[in-house]
Design brief:
The radius of gyration is 14 Å and the shape is globular. It is 38% helix and 19% strand. β3, α4 and β4 form a beta-alpha-beta unit. It has a single domain, classed as Rossmann fold, CATH 3.40.50.9100. By secondary structure, it is an alpha/beta fold. It binds 1,3,4-trihydroxy-5-OXO-cyclohexanecarboxylic acid. The site of 1,3,4-trihydroxy-5-OXO-cyclohexanecarboxylic acid has 10 residues, from loops.
Length: 151
């Protein structure tokens, strides 16, 4: 069974009450539950962790680098300017997929650029909670492909 860290960045614990017109009205707990159920049905085990602080997010990435198989990462606003998070993603060998609830490319200009996406396996955005579920599917495909190649 693949072990997946689902890492949520700043302000995401306020889902449901935070700008519902952009992020929807369902709350963070229900997002985590949906992720865990979807992961199980894909034969994966997902662990959700959230932090508002850059250093704690870096620590989470370091902590799982040898014991987990991949990461689904929504870095929130850090996406657009955190070189420290970019370096942390680049420093670990397991695949990381960047996800966003909103379509960042259709929003303010500062959100169009991700400094983290270039060191990720890919980026999925604009599908609400489904961005995370699509991320799990993509990660599973990557892991299956890698394990086939290594046989
Ligand atoms: C977000 C998009 C970011 O630009 C924003 O700062 C967030 C949420 C998303 O999931 O759509 O906090 O990552």
């Amino acid at each position: 069974m693949w072990n997946v860290l689902v890492l949520h960045g700043p302000n995401l614990q306020l889902l449901g009450e935070r700008e519902p017109e952009t992020y929807g009205s369902a709350d963070f707990n229900s997002l985590c539950q949906q992720i865990e159920h979807a992961a199980q049905s894909l034969g994966m085990q997902a662990e959700n962790r959230q932090s508002n602080s850059e250093g704690a997010l870096i620590d989470h990435l370091h902590a799982v680098r040898l014991s987990f198989d991949g990461v689904i990462f929504n870095p929130g606003a850090y996406t657009h300017y955190s070189y420290a998070l970019r370096d942390a993603v680049a420093a670990i060998a397991i695949p990381v997929i960047e996800v966003h609830l909103s379509n960042v490319h259709a929003r303010e200009e500062f959100r169009h650029r991700s400094v983290i996406a270039p060191v990720c396996a890919g980026q999925i955005c604009g599908f609400g909670f489904n961005s995370y579920l699509l991320g799990l599917h993509a990660l599973k495909m990557i892991l299956e492909e890698t394990s086939r190649e290594s046989v």
